[in-house]
Amino acid sequence: MTSAQTMQPNEHRSGRTHIVGLAALLVLSIGFGCLQRQQGSLERPSTLLTPYDSPQLWAVAPLANESGTTAIDRMAITDLLSEQLQQVDGVNTVPVNRVLLAMRQLGLNAVTTPQEAQRLIVILGVDGLLIGTITAWDPYQPPKLGLAVQLFTSSMMPQNGSFDLDSTRRATGEIVSSPTAVPIAQAAGIWDASNHRTLMSLNSFTQGRTRLDSAYGSDLYLVDMDLYTQFVAHRLVENLLGNEHSRLSAAPEP
Question: What one-character-per-residue DSSP string does 80-119 give?
Answer without folding.
Answer: HHHHHHHTSBTEEE--HHHHHHHHHHTT-SS--SHHHHHH
